[in-house]
UniProtKB/TrEMBL annotation:
Gene3D superfamilies: Acid-sensing ion channel domain, YojJ-like. GO terms for cellular component: plasma membrane. The gene is ppk11. This is Pickpocket protein 11. Coiled coil: none annotated. It comes from the Eukaryota. It is a multi-pass membrane protein. InterPro entries: ENaC (IPR001873). The chain crosses the membrane at residues 117-138, 452-483. Belongs to the amiloride-sensitive sodium channel (TC 1.A.6) family. The lineage of its organism: Eukaryota, Metazoa, Ecdysozoa, Arthropoda, Hexapoda. Pfam families: ASC.
């Protein structure tokens, strides 16, 4: 027994005076629990000078006067609290201001009334400016929905289809054939055109493609233009690609037997266009005089579109997608082909027939010589502009455009300069060479001015610049306006339900 007592001695007891422990160490610096006035201490040198200049007096009097002004009911939340939020329960707006990431909202907690009003005006101004700029951005998007920009300059010309080269003569009717045909009666308009028009393809002496030995005369096609001219075209309705050599053609310029008001110095017209498009008066052309050599340096431009362009309506887009509009005569859509079909429809509605060699539907009759004046009146009338607007011949969204420059030299000067080969050069020939001027083509892309991704970037940049908003700010606003009040209401309803259950148990017991 004695051994256990010696082995487990009693623990020492310490007496603590709790009243002395809770007393503050420095009584002179102690303040009451809810004493909010600042203690008076030493006045700084700057404060003393400001009091001398009466700036602080004006500041305090202005803030006191502004704080006594009555506020409307919908601005009562801007009134400063007397207890600094320690005695009364904080509202949801004050909790949101303490935790919000938007610039300036934390000023509403613990600030004076005039400071709250001033910051509220600044925030409202920032919100208004951001809304105005966002609306201006949307209006610019609606006015200019598409934009064209250069995507790359490194597209090789060997991947760009070579254009169609159409050669037309300015002498359209042979006087010798005309005198013979006028002696015959009952000749139709189509027969006169086919018999009297000179064949340009027969005037081609040689044709070389990509500087090959084989002759490409068999690949030439005779086509009719909308102005009733028989021309000779290379690469029409076909698709060929050229590296850099291009096309070389030699024509014999024989103007004997043809009547024309023009001189022999401008005997051929060269038109450069897309291979699936019929040449018209709007096609770029170059006049080549007889007895000359011309070099046409072509520069191709590729126009394509992005998938984002499909979200825009046709009226705003102002161009057709491939296979979006079908033509009744041509297999491939182009603006020139559409205008040619529109002209044929207009002439058929006016005259009941169409000119020969024009686009036509099945069942349309050809005009005769007695109806030539009707077609001439249609071309001179103002209704053609209105009908073209009704046809809506918009340009395609994807096409190739060709620009060229011509270098023309007279063969006589070349023959005089050459010594040994002067007999090989004929002064009545027309020599043409058409090729790409550069191995690189320029590609342009049609894209929307602003899609949903760029709009998010624009909206985020504007709101971040004026208010400092972000996705976190949106989530905070949704939480404090929807989620938190809903959770508080559900909690309140649960507490009330438990109280009713307790009251019902007490009453039944």
């Amino acid at each position: 027994m004695s051994s256990s007592q010696t082995s487990n001695p009693a623990l020492p007891k310490y007496l603590v005076n709790f009243e002395n422990y809770l007393k503050p160490k420095k009584l002179d610096q102690c303040q009451p629990l809810q004493h909010f006035e600042k203690p008076t201490g030493r006045i700084s040198y700057l404060t003393r000078n400001l009091k001398r200049l009466k700036l602080l007096r004006w500041y305090y009097s202005f803030s006191k006067f502004f704080g006594q002004l009555p506020l409307p009911r919908f601005l009562e939340f801007l009134r400063a609290r007397k207890d600094d939020g320690l005695c009364k329960r904080k509202t949801g707006f004050e909790i949101y201001c303490e935790m919000a990431s938007i610039h300036g909202f934390h000023i509403f907690v613990g600030a004076k009334t005039w400071q709250r009003v001033l910051w509220w005006l600044l925030i409202c101004t920032a919100v208004l400016l951001s809304l105005v700029i966002v609306i201006m951005s949307l209006s610019m998007t609606r006015e200019t929905p598409t934009i064209r920009f250069i995507d790359t300059m490194m597209k090789p010309t060997s991947e760009v289809p070579f254009p169609a080269v159409t050669i037309c003569g300015l002498n359209t009717i042979s006087q010798r054939n005309l005198s013979e045909k006028l002696k015959k009666r009952n000749a139709s308009w189509l027969q006169l055109l086919e018999d009297l028009a000179p064949s340009i393809c027969q005037q081609v002496n040689s044709c070389q493609w990509e500087n090959r030995v084989e002759n490409c005369r068999k690949k030439l096609q005779a086509i009719w233009t909308p102005d009733q001219r028989l021309c000779c075209s290379f690469n029409y309705q076909q698709k060929r690609f050229s590296s850099h050599l291009g096309l070389s053609v030699v024509l014999s310029s024989n103007n004997e037997g043809f009547g024309s008001a023009l001189t022999a110095s401008a005997s051929h017209e060269i038109l450069i266009h897309e291979s699936h498009e019929i040449p018209s008066t709007f096609t770029p052309k170059l006049l080549v005089p007889s007895g000359s050599e011309a070099h046409l340096m072509v520069r191709p431009f590729v126009n394509r579109f992005t998938e984002n362009l499909g979200s825009i309506d046709l009226d705003k887009r102002a161009c057709y997608f491939p296979r979006e509009r079908d033509l009744f005569y041509f297999s491939v859509y182009s603006q020139g082909n559409c205008l040619a079909e529109c002209r044929s429809e207009g002439i058929f509605r006016l005259c009941g027939c169409i000119p020969p060699n024009s686009p036509r539907r099945q069942g349309w009759s050809l005009c005769d010589l007695q109806q030539i004046q009707c077609t001439i009146n249609y071309d001179n009338a103002d209704r053609i502009v209105e009908e073209q607007k009704q046809c809506k011949c918009l340009p395609p969204c994807q096409f190739h455009r060709y620009e060229f420059q011509g270098d023309i030299r007279l063969i006589k000067e070349m023959a005089n300069r050459s010594i040994g080969n002067s007999s090989l050069i004929s002064p009545n020939e027309v020599r043409l060479r058409i090729y790409y001027d550069s191995p690189i083509a320029e590609e342009q892309v049609l894209d929307v001015y602003e899609n949903w991704l760029t709009f998010i970037g624009t909206f985020g940049g504007i709101t971040g610049l004026f208010m400092g908003c972000s996705f976190v700010s949106v989530f905070e606003l949704i939480f404090f306006t929807c989620v938190r009040p809903t959770c508080n209401w559900l909690t309140r309803q649960q507490i009330l339900w438990r109280r009713r259950q307790k009251i019902s148990v007490i009453r039944t017991g």
